[in-house]
Amino acid sequence: MINPPAGPAVLGIDLGRRWTAAVVRAGDRALHGWTLGPRDARGAPAPLHDPYDLAAWARYHGRIRDAVDQTLHRRPDHWGPCEARRGERDHERAAYDIAGAGPRILRARAEEHATGPSA
Predict the structure, then answer these.
(1) pLDDT tens for residues 15-65?
(2) Disulfide: which of 12, 31, 38, 102 matches 60 by Cβ 3.0-4.6 Å?
(3) pLDDT, tens only, 71-112
(4) What is the 3-state secondary structure (H, E, C) of the chain?
(5) Could you give the CA distance from residue 93 to residue 83 in angstroms, rounded to a whole number?
(6) Residue 7 in contact with residue 31, Cβ under 8 Å?
(7) Long-range contacts: 17-22, Cβ < 8 Å, 24+?
(8) Residue spans per domain, the chain
(9) Dist. CA 80–CA 24, nearest whole Å
């Protein structure tokens, strides 16, 4: 690799009822990402309108779980799918920002734990 990424790879997830996005980020570089939405029992795109439709929620969470598992265990060398429609807010950008904030928050907590709470 000519320009190795700076810092550890972090997975940021922007979880939502309509779309869920994830981005693997190392330093300022986005290495992989995807955006997925819920599907009906036949596999066609289907929004989650009914919060009590447990079968629909289970399908959606299963898709997300499988995508996260695949991303963590064998990160593809290409960008993943983006199922969000054009003009929707940029879910992958939000996931990228979350992945960037995670290490800073954990570092601050570790420093506070080592030195005690700040006044």
Answers:
(1) 988 899 999 998 888 899 999 999 999 999 998 888 899 999 999 999 999
(2) 38
(3) 988 877 778 888 887 766 688 888 989 888 888 888 888 898
(4) CCCCCCCCEEEEEECCCCCEEEEEEECCEEEEEEEECCECCCCCECCCCCCCCHHHHHHHHHHHHHHHHHHHHCCCCCCCCECCCCCCCCHHHHHHHHHHHHHHHHHHHHHHHHHCCCC
(5) 14
(6) no
(7) 17/48, 18/47, 18/48, 19/83, 19/84, 19/88, 19/91, 20/60, 20/64, 20/91, 21/84, 21/91, 21/92, 21/94, 21/95, 22/67, 22/68, 22/71, 22/92, 22/95
(8) 9-104
(9) 11
In the chain, the amino acid numbered 56 is: A
